[in-house]
What we know:
mainly alpha
Amino acid sequence: MDPKQDSVVHLAAARATRTSRRPEPRAKAPQPALLRQIYGEILRDERRDQDRSLDDVARAVGMSKQYLSEVERGRKEASSEILRSVCDALELPIEQLLGRGIRRMTAHRTLRAPRSGGIELCAA
């Protein structure tokens, strides 16, 4: 084998070992759900359970259906007045929204993998 070819082979092998020794990037831990996302899920679930449209509920509250959609998807931080108005339109006591929010937050927290490496599942 030609000495030049031999050094090219060694160089290629050295590059391959350097790139293969790089540590695998760590997967990012899932972020806990935000309160606005949880409240939005609850409001959307309640509206759908009542077979009501976004337009219907938005009109009852006096807001645009686009804004209500953003609230339901957790993209907008709704004020306490907006939350109360939407709850009133859905005939959902605000206390139930808060209670369901606590239960869902607890469920989201419990379903995340603990730092010990195991997975803990909990029914909520």
